[in-house]
Amino acid sequence: MYTNREWVLAKRPAGEPSMDCFELEETETAALTAGELLVQTWYLSVDPYMRGRMSDSESYAEPWAVGEPLNGGIVGEVVEAESDAYDTGDLVTGEGTWAEYSVMDAADVTAVDPSVAAPEAYLGVLGMPGRTAYFGLLEVGDPSPGETVVVSGAAGAVGSVVGQIAKLNGCRVVGFAGTDEKTTWLTEELGFDAAINYKSTDEYQAALADAAPGGVDVYFDNVGGPITDAVFTQLNLDARVAVCGQIAHYNDETVPTGPRKLPQLIAPRATVQGLLVGDFANRFGVATEQLSEWVASGDLSHRETIVEGLSNAPDAFLGLFSGDNIGKQVVQVTTET
Amino acid sequence: MYTNREWVLAKRPAGEPSMDCFELEETETAALTAGELLVQTWYLSVDPYMRGRMSDSESYAEPWAVGEPLNGGIVGEVVEAESDAYDTGDLVTGEGTWAEYSVMDAADVTAVDPSVAAPEAYLGVLGMPGRTAYFGLLEVGDPSPGETVVVSGAAGAVGSVVGQIAKLNGCRVVGFAGTDEKTTWLTEELGFDAAINYKSTDEYQAALADAAPGGVDVYFDNVGGPITDAVFTQLNLDARVAVCGQIAHYNDETVPTGPRKLPQLIAPRATVQGLLVGDFANRFGVATEQLSEWVASGDLSHRETIVEGLSNAPDAFLGLFSGDNIGKQVVQVTTET
Question: Where does the record place the Enoyl reductase (ER) domain (chains A, B) (predicted)?
Fold first, then answer.
């Protein structure tokens, strides 16, 4: 039994979440039952979709309960095992809690191989965001060589992988991101053909027309809002829009207004489709294998923004909405007892 | 050579078209060259998509030229033939002009069989609107038995066919239309399970929840605007939205604003797709054959709203935007010389 600290949902936010929505509680770890592992958190994942879990409205991810621990992806070390599948000292990843320790079913975790990539990469390029990029782009976006792929939130955990997979598929790739550091990373390090800093211009449509003079064949949308409005004006015949996220809207208290976009779909016979990575669960293994190969070969770069200390987890989460992260945002959990 | 009267585009409209956009000119029919027919118009078609042709912006239908005759679907009688394919007296349909006489290529027309349906039906259920309904519903909407299909503009030329084909496919069908006469026609004559008069309530979302308590699997959209906003709130898992038309927006002078809808696509993994019937041109024959069978068997009802007189063609066209028509709007062209 260990003393544990874990974040619980103190209250639901209205609009933008604030720090008082989170409360750090001290507890003790539960005794394990058969098949369970006690995992000490090395890294925990904060993801934009978690904003939906803070609300009680029905959605694809089960809402977090007020007063209960916040769950999400973690990477950690097995410190107790009531399972033959893992030994103490093994590194695993799976759904844990924003805590120092998580009790996890051995059947629900997968092994982390630090020879492929640093453990924290298993929350990003080799985790849910990487798989989202892989299936979202290849299955929903379905790009062909020579096509133009535009990505919003391009320097984020998902977008940065989307753009690189599109390049590996022979596409022209344009990303929207919010700082010059990010756009430089995209074009200099990740091989994007062009990147637009949407905070340095209001003329998204003109900027996109410059960056994608042949129009847009695939749009992988993580953001929504005015960036998406601009992209919709430049969809090519048979364009595909994969709606992966809409981070610009997650803190909206009411349904926002914007240009009505459906008329713009008719002439190009464009397709807009919402996507959830969970729909591809039976093929996660294939994706992880391919992503691991690309990472190992150097074809796929990845980057993590690491905030240190469990106490800073809410800050790291809230920072997603102001674009503090480059690549995958993770929290390194140090045991501060 | 015949004296002809034909409507030309006098000027392009800004916003809602007015009568002075149209001008009726007297001309003489041209001499035929090999392969051509001179066709005397019995009925001409006015269609919402023609609003796009009045503007000079690039779109899927070639803009009408200022000062030039307005073209569109017609049904008429061959009065001169420089082709062995048709004789004088034959009834044909194809792309003609808003005129008493049209010169048409014999290769581009098809025969009208009045034993299947009245000639004017070849501009509706057995013409482009019927084919649009057929392919748009079955290929883009792709409904399965037991699913709920919602249609906007349900009492129009396309929508009324969509709903009936959905019923023939074992679906629950809900239509939006703008008068009690229309909604009664839909439920009493066409077999719709429910119909909502959108001009008698502002509570579209509540009305739809009543009419489609199991949510919406397929939405065939001819209209856009607030009706579509309401439908988007109630999309089921894997819902398909076929964007066929957006008549509520064709007269907009600027891009209108409305609720941003993309966030609503993620949880249901819904698909929204623009459609143009021309993409299915290589299968038009199959569609017309099936539609003719259904009409002949009585499985598919159709109705035409007939305005008499070539001089009233612009009125009939403008009436589409106020919902004057039930079923297909056509103009019966009498030779008023």
Answer: 15-331
In this structure, CATH architecture of domain B128-278: 3-Layer(aba) Sandwich (3.40)
For B257, name the nearest residue in chain A, comparing CA atoms only: A259
Q: What is the mean pLDDT of residues B195-218?
A: 98
Residues in chain B: 337
- Interface membership of A224 toward B (CB under 8 Å): yes
CA distance A137 to B290: 38
Q: Which residues of B touch A259 (CB under 8 A)?
A: 255-257
Domain A3-120+304-332 has CATH 3.90.180.10: yes
Asked if A274's CB is within 8 angstroms of B224's CB, the reply is no
The per-residue pLDDT for range A86-96, each reduced to its tens digit, is: 999 999 999 99
Q: Which residues of A touch B63 (CB under 8 A)?
A: none
Burial pattern B266-301, b for ≥16 Cβ within 10 A else e, equals bbbbbbbbbbbbeebeeebeebbebbbebbeeeebb
CB atoms near residue A213 (< 10 Å)? 10
Nearest-Cα residue of chain A relative to residue B272: A272
At B87-141, the pLDDT tens digits run: 999 999 999 999 999 999 999 999 999 999 999 999 999 999 999 999 999 999 9
| Residue of B47, B266, B279 for testing the chain A interface, max A β-carbons within 10 Å | B266
The residues, any chain, with a CB within 8 Å of residue B91's CB and separated by 6 or more, are B42, B75, B76, B77, B78, B111, B112, B114, B119
Contact A246 B224 (CB under 8 A): no
**Matching fold, domains B3-124+303-332 and B128-278:** no
The CA-based angle B219-B223-B229, given to 5 degrees, is: 65
Residue of A258, A260, A272 lying closest to B272 (CB–CB): A272
pLDDT at B214 over 70: yes
**pLDDT band with cut points at 50, 70 and 90 for residue A336:** very low
CATH second-level architecture of B3-124+303-332?
Answer: Alpha-Beta Complex (3.90)
According to DSSP, the residues that pair with A328 across neighbouring strands are A304
d(CA B169, CA B186): 17
Chain A contact set for B274 (CB, 8 A):
262, 265-271
Mean local confidence (pLDDT), A45-50: 97
Handedness of CA B252, B255, B259, B264 (dihedral sign): positive
Residue B60 · residue B276 · CB < 8 Å:
yes
How many angstroms separate the CA atoms of A296 and A262, rounded? 42
Partner B contacted by A276 (CB < 8 A): yes
Mark yes or no for CB contact B267/A225 under 8 Å.
Answer: no
* Residue ranges per structural domain of chain B: 3-124+303-332, 128-278
Average pLDDT of every residue of chain A: 96
Check CB contact of B255 with chain A, cutoff 8 Å.
Answer: yes
Q: Give the closest of B260, B270, B274 to A256, CB-based.
A: B260
- The 10s digit of each residue's pLDDT in A173-230 is 999 999 999 999 999 999 999 999 999 999 999 999 999 999 999 999 999 999 999 9
Q: Which pair of tokens denotes residue A202?
A: 């209001």
Q: What is the average per-residue pLDDT within B236-262?
A: 95
Chain A contact for B68 (CB, 8 A cutoff): no
